[in-house]
Design a protein that fits this description.
The protein has 112 residues and is α+β, with helices and mostly antiparallel strands. Helices cover 29% and strands 9% of the residues. It has a two-stranded antiparallel ribbon.
Length: 112
Amino acid sequence: MDGSSKSMMEYLQKEATRFASENPQIEVVVQPRPSKHPIVRAFYTNGEQKTKCVRRCSAGEIPEVVKSLRDHSGHKLHRWNRYVISDTPSVRGIYSPFHDKAEYSISDLKTK
């Protein structure tokens, strides 16, 4: 057992069976990957999959990675910074400082 798989083997021996019994809706499959870093892979019902490498995680951090994959929806993350396009123009219109009809002088501003 090499150094990167040590914490994963410890997790599989101690906590993986408890996780599988607490979450019967999830299928847990363990596949050996000789000479490779340990990973946790999740397959979602929408056809997506997500993989996390746990080579530098301790045995206490691996359950957090597994729970985050369990709680993820499987959809890819998108930025929703889109402008609103409307068919109706604004009631007030576009602001311009030239629309203001009032005239001010510097002496009016000093007295206020």
